[in-house]
Design goal:
Strand content: 15-25%
Number of helices: 8
Bound molecules: 2,6-di-O-phosphono-beta-D-fructofuranose
Order of helices and strands: HHHHEEEEEEEEEHEHEEHEEEH
Oligomer: single chain
Helix content: 25-40%
Structural class: alpha+beta
Number of strands: 15
Shape: globular
Strand order of the largest sheet: 2-1-3-4-5-6-7-8
Radius of gyration: 19 Å
């Protein structure tokens, strides 16, 4: 089985980017260990870095954020980072080639129930005309990403990674400590009969989403002509992993539940990296009105409606928004 470096070298990935990805994965291995310790994490402490010792009582998402921030900034190839857990961006090396955004622990409400969670990351090119402490350098569309991935902390720890040459899936070999390539090319089936959405928000959705889901629920007798099944892991990383493995549509649409927060998921930490992975696996990703990766962000913490997965199903859902 192949390790990550030779695969990335074969894909022609820049050596600084390879070492950055490997550094991110070193932090994720540590997070994986902490997650696997569950309630014991605070008792047994860390296997990496002394400076996080003594902080083991902190919540896992805070620990994961600090671990990632520290190791990424230490690489010297990163000009700045932006994390879902930080109000502001954090400057690194002014000459760094890359910017990194990450959601340190996605689906963190699942930690308390020992269910799926993960780390999502995205790498953008640094911009020469902007200072390391300028948040505006991050406001690049998802199409500018040079790498994106997630590490899923489940029964096994898995990595989905793209550098624009397809989406590859790796599994953490805990005996040797590295990620091994277990799926050369993820391929999302074009058609599906499985959807993932938080149905409890149904009455708050826009009419287009109401109509689309209502038609799915009509099953074989309805306009879609087949019976659909539903899944909801409540951690985007888990739901997207299922989509990468066997297809499906995942949606977190706009709703009116909270007028101050019409969209839930974050563009830069969740939607863009997941869209890159899904598109590179043959799927599609949209807000219902536009391709997610075409959006030019106006704020690092911007939220966006997300509809992604099997291409034909996403296109069908988008068609309801264009009626
Ligand atoms: P969480 O709030 O637990 O971090 O990131 C937002 C997110 O999880 C996604 O991972 C997940 O898909 C969604 O929110 C779950 O939303 P609901 O609480 O509406 O189920």
């Amino acid at each position: 089985m192949r390790r990550i470096s030779p695969v990335l070298q074969q894909d022609g990935v820049d050596s600084d980017l390879i070492s950055l990805i490997k550094t991110i994965l070193a932090a994720c291995r540590e997070i994986s260990f902490r997650v696997s310790q569950g309630e014991l994490a605070g008792v047994l402490g860390s296997t990496l870095g002394e400076n996080i010792q003594g902080e083991t009582q902190k919540k896992l998402d805070i620990i994961a954020n600090e671990l990632l921030k520290e190791v990424i900034l230490e690489t010297g190839v990163v000009k700045a980072i932006s994390s879902e857990e930080e109000d502001d961006t954090v400057a690194g090396n002014p000459n760094g080639k890359y910017l990194v955004t990450f959601d340190p622990l996605d689906g963190s409400s699942n930690t308390d129930i020992n269910s799926l969670i993960g780390t999502i990351f995205s790498v953008l090119p640094a911009q020469a005309d902007k200072a390391a402490d300028d948040a505006a350098q991050f406001l690049q569309p998802g199409t500018a990403q040079v790498a994106a991935g997630y590490v899923l902390y489940g029964p096994s720890t898995m990595l989905a990674l793209t550098t624009g040459k397809g989406t590859r899936i790796y599994t953490l070999d805990k005996t040797y400590g590295g990620f091994l390539l277990t799926e050369e090319q993820a391929a999302i089936p074009k058609y599906t009969a499985e959807f993932a959405i938080n149905m409890s928000n149904q009455r708050y959705w826009q009419p287009a989403m109401q109509a689309y889901i209502a038609d799915l629920l009509k099953g074989k007798e309805g306009p879609r002509g087949k019976n659909y099944n539903m899944r909801w892991i409540a951690a985007m990383v888990g739901d997207v992993h299922r989509v990468l493995c066997r297809g499906g549509i995942f949606a977190y649409p706009r709703d009116t539940k909270d007028a101050t927060k019409p969209d839930k998921l974050r563009l830069m930490y969740e939607a863009n990296p997941m869209s890159f992975l899904v598109e590179q696996a043959g799927g599609a990703s949209s807000t219902g009105y536009e391709r997610i990766m075409d959006i030019v962000p106006t704020d690092i913490h911007q939220r966006v409606a997300v509809i992604l997965g099997s291409k034909h199903e996403v296109d069908s859902c988008v068609a309801y928004h264009q009626r």
